[in-house]
């Protein structure tokens, strides 16, 4: 799959897709020696939304979590191949794991605001964890981040209220605001709308479209329509015969959905399996 | 329900169908379950009564015999020994009240920070050290409490030459409280969902900050419950302090003075030859129970407020 960009004329050249935020080369993740996902080679272009799609067990989430080294604390987890952020190898290069995670933010499948903290404290928690204490900076960032997450208008009058009082959709936007407060270059989203109702989902999707002007988004989604609606590029993963996920195809979303190279991609996007 | 065909609009013969078989069987099953349910209800009520009777009887006895002993002087006066001329002059128990408060305070200061930190450590790490600490604290939880008293006597009172003192008693009580706090803290911390830790890590927080700023506050009500349990147990213990606090007849908060304690006063007075002193034990017991009740009630209200903030 390394050669995918050269296989066809219509595949986007790096120049067409703009500068690269993250590069993946032969990335594989295994747990206790058992491969969960492998052969992932593609570029995440800056200021675009890249979606990872594929059926359950194809390794989408596993791959996503390798991008901010969230597997580090999992016993027996091993990430091989090379992942780089702005040309720096995130596993072996000159970057600490905490710095990486401030530059590559993450939003999880289920909204997970810190239950003991207020809305305000949740938003600025990342800044505080990284040593920023100045009240004016925190206030400024809290407002800007909540505005970016389209949550400011509904919560500005109750910033000191516990975050758990918000609805599911609001909690998820709070988690997005919390990630944005660190001003990350890349935002990883792991099925961010799967626990939300259709209206809340719509809000988050619209949010993603506006966010990409300032942050590169990588999103895992089960929802094919969502991938088609919001993403610019698309990676299709599938579980191989040995039950390890692998990258089948990477291309622009338009190409993946309309004219994919691999018949399995077509079958999946048409809903014939998965 | 034997004629199940009435229920369907188009009468069909259900006698040989699986559907009919299921209906007939389920009627029998339902009747049997209803009978079982009634029987279990009766048994549960009987068990409840069996458990409640001794408890209610105990509280009744405690209040009936304890209340007449209580007066303002009971709290503020030192104990006196009755004489033939004044057989009812038992005085108060101010030394035992202050002694118990001081012992509890110092024991809590010694045990809570260590216990909570060890509990967090056990929950957050997997290592040989953690495993052995866990085994040690579980073993300590089952150790007889007189052992703590013996240990405090030989180590603090004798070897360190501190003498009979509230600090020696506090040490014995702290050793008693530690395993309770450690075990309940570990459980409370383990109950914090992993997704919260991940959320913190994904924001670039170092793992000790995740432990202290996210996990610990999220598990605070469970930790407080464990601490109350430990305090309530320590407050009522006689054996660990019996050998080491010296049974002082003064009101002293000083850690190196000999003190008395309410359980110890009960123990001593119950052996007295004077009926008035033997009667006094009910007053002391009532104060002790009331004290434990207030401590646990306050802490529970506090913990539930904390919980409400989360929900």
Question: What are the main properties of this structure?
Answer:
heterodimer; A: 274 residues; alpha/beta; Rossmann fold; ten-stranded mixed beta sheet; 10 strands; 36% helix; 25% strand; globular; B: 311 residues; mainly alpha; MetI-like fold; 2 domains; 12 helices; 73% helix
Give a short synopsis of this structure.
With 274 residues, chain A is α/β, with parallel strands linked by helices. Chain A has helices spanning 4-7, 14-17, 60-66, 97-103, 119-129, 135-148, 152-155, 168-180, 198-211, 224-230, 253-258, 263-269, and strands at residues 20-31, 34-45, 49-53, 77-85, 88-89, 104-107, 186-190, 216-220, 233-239, 245-252.
Q: Layout of helices and strands, plus pairs?
A:
The complex is a heterodimer of chains A (274) and B (311).
Chain A: H1 4-7, H2 14-17, E1 20-31, E2 34-45, E3 49-53, H3 60-66, E4 77-85, E5 88-89, H4 97-103, E6 104-107, H5 119-129, H6 135-148, H7 152-155, H8 168-180, E7 186-190, H9 198-211, E8 216-220, H10 224-230, E9 233-239, E10 245-252, H11 253-258, H12 263-269
Parallel strand pairs in A: 2-10, 3-8, 3-9, 6-7, 7-8
Antiparallel strand pairs in A: 1-2, 1-4, 4-5, 9-10
Helix pairs in contact in A: 5-6, 5-8, 6-8, 8-9
Chain B: H1 18-66, H2 72-76, H3 94-124, H4 128-142, H5 145-159, H6 166-190, H7 194-201, H8 207-218, H9 220-236, H10 239-242, H11 262-270, H12 275-310
Distance between the termini of chain B: 47 Å
- The name CATH uses for the topology of the largest domain in chain B is MetI-like fold
User: What does the average pLDDT of chain B come to?
Assistant: 86
User: With helices defined by DSSP (H or I, 4 residues minimum), what is the helix count of chain A?
Assistant: 12
Indicate the CATH class of chain A.
Alpha Beta
CATH class of the largest domain in chain B: Mainly Alpha
The CATH topology of chain A corresponds to: Rossmann fold
Structural class by sheet pairing and helices of chain B: mainly alpha
N-to-C SSE string of chain B, H for helix and E for strand: HHHHHHHHHHHH
Name given to the CATH architecture of the largest domain in chain B: Orthogonal Bundle
Q: How large is the share of residues in beta strands of chain A?
A: 25-35%
Helix content of chain B: over 70%
Domain module count of chain B:
2
Q: If classified by CATH, what would the architecture of chain A be?
A: 3-Layer(aba) Sandwich
CATH H-level superfamily of the largest domain in chain B: MetI-like
Distance between the termini of chain A: 22 Å
Strand content of chain B: under 5%
The mean pLDDT of chain A is 90
